Amino acid sequence: MVDDLRRAGPVRVRDLAAACHPGPTVAVTAFAVAMAGGADAPARTTVLVGAAILTGQLSVGWSNDWIDAARDAEVGRTDKPVGAGRLSVSAVRTAALVALAACVVFSMSLGWRAGLVHLATVASAWSYNLRLKSTLWSWAPYAFSFGFLPLAIALALPGHPLAAWWAVLGGALLGVGAHGANVVPDLQDDRATGVRGLPHRLGGTATSIGSAGALVAATLLVVLAPPGDPSAGSAVALVVALGLTILGTTVALNGGRSRLPFNAAIAVAAVDVVLLVLSDWVVPR
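Above: the chain's sequence. Below: its structure in C-alpha cell form.
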C-alpha cells in the first residue's frame, strides 16, 4: 500500500503541474521578474512581483482546465490531465482557488496601486476562461492582461512610476498575437464543443496572418518608440523576432496541431522583454 502511494504521489503532482499550463506560466513569471529586476526594483519587490505573477498565472491555468474539463474530455484531449481523467475536477478547482487567494495576498503586498492593476489583469484572464473565449471579444482579455502587466510592475517600484505608453501597447499587441497562435491548433476541437471566439470566425489562415502582424508590430514598437536612435542590438533583436514570427506563421499556415507557433510567439515576447529591460520603459511621475 505504501509503495502504491509513493508511486501515485509523483503522478498526481506531475498531472497538477501539467494542468497549470506550465510553459506560459513560467514564461510570464520570468518576464515579469526580469522587468522588475531590470528596473532596479528592490530585491523584496522583485520577489513579490514574481510571487504575485506566478500565483496569478497558476490560478488562470488551473481554472482553464477546470472550466474546460468536459470539453476536453469530449474531444479526447489526452494532453489535458483533467479531461483525460488523470486528475479530478475538484482537485484542479481547489488548486485554482487557492492560487487565486495567494495571488490576492501577494498582489496587495506590492501596494494598492500595483495590486489592483495586477488583480484586474488576472480577472481579465479569468473572464476569458469563463465566457469571453466563445465570443467575438476573445482577444480582449489577452490584450488587457498583457498590456497592463507592465503598468502593474511599474507601480510596484519605489515612487510608483508609470509604464511608457508604448510598453503598454506593445504588451497588448503581444497578447493578441499570442492568443491567435495559441488557438489555431485547437480550432477544430473548439468548434466541435461550441467555442466560437474571434479566431474561429476568422479561420486559421486569417488568424495566423493577423497574429504575425500583431507580433511584428509589438516588436517594431519597442524598437522604434523609445527615445533616441535604435541600437545595433535592437536591430538584431528585430531580425530575430521577425525570423521567429515567420517560422511560427509558416508552420501554422501548414495546418496541424503543432504548438510551435505558440512557442515562437512566447520567444518573440522574450525578445521584446529584453528590449524593454534595456530601454527606459519606466516613466517617473
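The first strand starts at residue 162 and ends at 163.
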